[in-house]
Amino acid sequence: MLINQLSVFIENKKGHLSKITKVLKDAQVDIRAISVFDSAEFGILRIVVDKPEVGAEALKKAGHVVKQSYVLAIDPSDKVGSLHDVFALLSDNDVNIEYVYSFVMPNNQGAPLIILKADDQEKAIALLTASDFSLIPKEAVYNVQNG
Amino acid sequence: MKIWSDKEKMSREETRKLQFKRLKKTLHHVYENVPYYHEKFKAAGVKPVDIRTLEDLRLLPLTTKEDLRKNYPFNLFAVPKNKIVRYHASSGTTGKPTVVGYTKNDLKVWREVIARIATMGGVTNEDTAQITFGFGLFTGAFGLQQGLEKVGAGVIPMSSGNTQKQIMIMQDFQSTVLIGTPSYALHLAEAAQEMGIDPKEELFLKYGLFGGEGSTEEMRAKLNEAWGIVATENYGMSELIGPGVSGECLAFKGMHINEDHFIAEIIDPNTLEVLPEGSVGELVITPITKEGLPLIRYRTKDITRLDTTPCDCGRTSVRMAKITGRTDDMLIIGGVNVFPSQIEGVLLGIKGIGSNYQIRVLKKGYLDRIEIDVEVVNQDLLVSVTLLDQLYKEIESKLHTILGIHAGIHLVEPKSLVRSEGKAKRVIDLRSENQ
Ligand SMILES: [Zn+2]
Questions:
Q1: What's the total number of domains in chain B?
Q2: Which residues of A touch B380 (CB under 8 A)?
Q3: B346-360, pLDDT tens digit by residue?
Q4: What number of other Cβ atoms are within 10 A of residue B294's Cβ?
Q5: What global pTM score does this model have?
Q6: What is the CATH number of the domain that holds B188?
Q7: Is residue B32 part of a domain?
Q8: Alpha-carbon distance B388 to nearest alpha carbon in chain A (angstroms)
Q9: Do both A85 and A50 map to the same domain?
Q10: SS3 of B79, please?
C-alpha cells in the first residue's frame, strides 16, 4: 500500500528544479506526482516516480540530498466532501497528517488523487481501508498502464 | 592647532631615551610577575639585563594572539586581580575571547592617549562628540568616551545601531564630532538623507574620528563630502590598549604613534626579522607603560610602514601609514574582528551539515555583510521544512553568539560549493568590488 516517495533538498534559486528534473529524465525516470514545500531560502521537493530506486540513486550520484520515505496514495472518489471525510477520519482517530498533495493519473477519470503522509501510516491504512476509501497500490502509481 | 602633550614634541633622542627607560621597567615587570614571559625569555636565552639599547628589543621573543589564547583568561596579567579595575574582551581565533585588563593607571594612560588623538583630529572642549561604537565588552567606546571627556568635549554615548535615533540626537544635541567606523558613518549619512535631512546644512558636524576598521583615502573623501567634515583615522587594538595607539593629525601624513607609551617595529612576517625604517611589513608594538597586561613585541598582523620625517603639524612622533592588509585571515566586519576559524568551529559543532563552507563578505550599501553557504548533508532533515528551518536558526544563533554579528546563512546542496584544488578558498571578500 505504501508508495516510495523521494524528498530532495532544493535551494530556492533559478534553475535548481530543472537540474533535478534533468537528472531524472537522463535516468529515464518518470515523475508521477510532484510538490514543493518551501520557505524563502530553501525547500523540499517531494516526488513520486515510476522507478524510485533508480531515481534516488541517480539524484544522489548527481550530488543531491535525497531521502526515501513512504506515503499513501488515496482516491477520495469524486463526491462532495469526500476529502474532508478522509481528513476527519484520521483526525478523529488521532492520526496526524504531516503533509498532503494532489496528483492525477492519465487514466483517472474523477477528482485528483492525493498523496498523504501521516505520522502513523499503519493506523492510517487500517482506518482508511475499514472505511472503504480506496488506497491506490504502488504498482498502479509507478506503472500507469496497469493503473 | 593645539598639541595636547609636550611628549608629542620631544626630540627623537629624548623620545628614545624615555622609551628605553620605560621598556626596561616593563621588561623587569613582566619577567618578575608573568611566569609565562619568564619562561619565554628563558627559552630565548635573554634576560631583561641583556637589553642594553633600544635596538636590543629585537632579541626578545614576539607575542601573538595565540599566546593570549593559551593564557586565557588572566595568566598574562602582570598584577594581582585586585589591581584590575576594568575588563574588556575581543573575539579570539577560536571560541574563547581575548581578555584584557586595566589597572587604574592603565585607564589613566588610555585617557591620555585618546585625548591626544582627539586633539590631533581637531576636537576641543567646545565640541560635542557622538560615539557610535558599542559600549560593552569590546574596547573602543569606553576609552574614547573617557579620553574625550578629558579633553573637555561633551560625550553622547549613543552606542551602535538605532540609526534614526542617531540622526535625531545628532540634530537635537548639535553633535560636532562623529565617532565610529568609517562604514557606519557613511551608512548614517545615507540614512540622514533618506530622512530628508541634509547632513551638511542641517547638522552641525565638523570632525569625524574613525577607527575600528581600515580605511582608504577614497573613503575619507566620501566621508568629508557626505558630512561636510574633516575626517581622521585612528588605530589601536584591545590587546595593546584599545583605540589610542596612534591617530592622524590634520596634516594627513599618517597616524602619529604615541611613542612614549608604545614602541613600534616593522618586521618581515615570514623571517620575523626587523626591517629598516620605511620598509613595508608587519607592525609589532610593545606597550611600555602598561601595568595590567603588558605584552612584549605584540604582532598586530597589520601591514604598514613607519615614517619619522618631520610632520607639518609640529609633532615629532613616528607616523604609521594606513593599514594596507593583514598577515592572517582576520576579517573586519563593521568594526568587529572575525576569524574564519571561529565560523568553522561553530559549523563543525552542528549536526546535519557538511565540513565544507564558504564565507562571502560584501557591502550592503555602506555596511559590511557576511554570508555563509553551508552544505546540507543529512537526508533526515528532509522530513519537513521545519527541521531545515530549525537547522538554519541554530546556525544563525550560534554564529551570533560567537561572532557578535549576524551572518546571512544559505543552506546549499553538498558539492555545490566550489572545491578548489589544494587549499579550499573559504573566504571571498567582495567588498572592494562593489564599492
Ligand atoms: Zn602630524
A1: 2
A2: 67
A3: 888 888 887 778 899
A4: 26
A5: 0.76
A6: 3.40.50.12780
A7: no
A8: 8
A9: no
A10: coil
